[in-house]
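Hi F.,

I've been meaning to write this up properly since the lab meeting, where we talked about keeping a consistent format for the predictions we share between groups. The idea is simple: the sequence comes first, exactly as it goes in, then the structure tokens exactly as they come out, then a line or two of notes. No screenshots and no reformatting. I'm using this chain as the first example so we have something concrete to point to.
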Amino acid sequence: MTQTTPSSQDTGVSAASGPSMSTRIGRVAAASAGALVVGELITLVQTVALARLLSPAEIGIFVSGTVITAFLAEFVEGGLRAGLVQREHDVADTAETVFWATLFGGVISSLGALAAAPVIGMLFNSTTAGLIAAASSGSLLLFSLTNVPESMLQREFSVKRRLIVGPTVSVAYAGTAVTLAALGCGVWSLVIGSYASFLAWVISVWAITDWRPGRGRASYRLWRELARYGLPLVLGAIGARLQNAAETLIVGRGLTSAALGNFRYGQRISQIPVRAIIEIGAVSLFPAFSRMAGDQARMRAAYLRAMRWVTIGAAPLCGMMIALGEPAVIVVFGEPWRDGGMVVMAMAGLGLGKAFISVSEEVIKATGRTRLLNWYTAVEVSVGIGSLVALVAWLGLVGAGLAMSVTALVVGLTVIGLALPLLAASWSQIAHAVIPPLPAAAVATVAVWLLDRHVVHAQDHPIALSVVMLMLDSVAFIVVYLAVLSVTAPHSTAEAGRAVVRLVARRGDR
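Output, unedited:
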């Protein structure tokens, strides 16, 4: 039956007697943090295993072969998913419209990827890359089936989605890819592992949502409204994919396949803090900001608070990448991946820049001003590709990593600037929120760098002892960071301490 008026069931927001917005965000954040820990542990084991079983060149060929599916994935979703999350009325009809539109997009994109596969082979001068492109094309159709269930669960601040889907997908990919790589399947273990993860994603996300097609009526009018809302998001995603494709071409063709493999593995490690920020915070911030869009003062306070906490979390992670990135990669992945460690260090700014982007972008999306994101796209593409060309020519593989850090930080400040007028907030308020953690992270970075290079020498020991040394380095970093943070941001430190005490007490009561 078509629903035309908002209700608690329709909008995904419970009645006033239900949990508060902050409680819901807290629950989703806590569930996301737990699922993220599990997922990252699985990913770490899988990444280490694949690094030992496959060469950097094989990883590079896989990246080359899947560049077209990564690019076309944005056309599948078309910005419609965010429009469904943000929608306050006609939700049943909107969901039906998004389902059929994205399914159609998945079919067309899969056929397009298949047709473009020979071009990929010629572009990278690799028959294997072309075959991988053709074989991977069907993943776009599977991806199209996840959009509406994911949107409905996000609207509902679903804890089950965080606890079930992410770990399930990680296990499916890791188990399949590592097993096949150990059996000698080479780069094809990654292709089959990707399909296993997509199938796990589709099955698990549909299993935990009660939405099914046929409960609403698809509408061209709704599609047009959603398309207008989502077009800047699509352009932004295309810009990001163009930048990703440029990285693949410039590093893969300008340097070597092995360099591309090191670059992508370094990028994967560098994005761990990014995933933490998005999974723990941004996923729940978008629907929360959408519900606050009519209350500017409330939204401004929530935004500044979110900016403060993502910086407190992202700054030390970036510092640890600088101080320990190279020795950690050598210890965990082995000497052939040393260049990947240098890339991790060079990409340290990625986490902080993405922290700024993720929170500010959710504000822009929640207020419906998505056209502002065209500025985000323009800056990201121009700065990203320009800095990549210049720095790779000057510094090689390390230059590629630095280009990503520079781009993320510049874009982060740009998106903050776009969000501030929507909230009637000022740069001084932003500075007050984000600056205090930075000197604490800087002091901890310098201290642990000196400790490791002159005392601990983590990478120079047998692997078991090296891991212990890295753990000691990490503990030292956290201690120094928290000590300095208690001086630069005493209120935040005390607030975090009280939150930990409450959490422990709550666990004790259970």
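Notes:
The radius of gyration is 23 Å.
The first helix runs from residue 8 to 11.

If this format works for you, I'll send the rest the same way.

G.
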